[in-house]
Amino acid sequence: MSKKDIEPFLTIPRFSAIPFIRHGFGTAGSTERDLRNREGGAGFRLVLLKQIHSEIVRFIDRLPQRKLEGDALVTERPGLLLIIKTADCLPVLIVDERRRVIAAVHCGWRGTLQLVLERAVQGMMERYGCRNADLLAGFGPCISGDCYEVGEEVRQSFVGAGFPAEIFRSREGGGNKYLLDLGEANRWQLQRLGVPAANIFRLDACTHCDKGYYSYRRDKNSKARMLSFIGISSSVSSRKQ
Q: Does the pTM of the predicted model rise above 0.90?
C-alpha cells in the first residue's frame, strides 16, 4: 500500500462508537497540522511528550506548561488530546468508558520491557478507580513479529523479567537472532492485569512491510514519526455513571 492510498488516521470501530471519544492512529500521511485541523477545531488542546523509551507515566490534570518527559499519558479531563509518536514502536490507546478515563502509551521494546503499559493501567485503576474489566485497549500499527529482529541479550532480558518465551521466534539461520512480537508482549501485560481478551483490539498492519507507514528500521533511522491520539470531547457531558 502506498502513502497515497492510506487514510491519514485509522480508527477502531469500538472506540468510534463511544460518543465522547475522539481517537486515531496516524499513518505516514499524517501531520501535526492535519491533527490540529481535524481535532483542534473541536476545542482540544494538544499534549505531547518528550518520549525517552521509559516506564514513566504522566497523569495530566491540567494542560502542561512545557513538554514533559515520559512515554505514557493518562487523563480524565475533557478537551485534552493525548498524543504519542511512533515509527515501528507500538502505540496503545486505552479507554474506560464507564469512568471516562483515557490513556495513550508509547511501547517500544525498552518501554515494554519496563512495563510502561502495565504501569499506565495500574495508574488508571489506582488514581481514577478504573476496573480492569471495563478497560478497552486499541493497538495501532507497529513492526510485526515477522520483521522485528533482536539479539540474544534482548531476549534474555525479557525472559528474565517474566515475559513468556512465546513472544519470540528463532530467526532462520540462527546466529543468536530472534523475532520479537511487540504486540503480543503488550497483550500479555494487559491480560495478566485482568483486561479481557475481547477488550483488546489490534489494527493488523506492519510498519516495516507497508510503506504507508513510517518505519525507523526500514527507513534507516529516519526521524519521521506518526501521530496517534485520544481525547475526551468537552462538548459531551463528562458526568460519571
A: yes
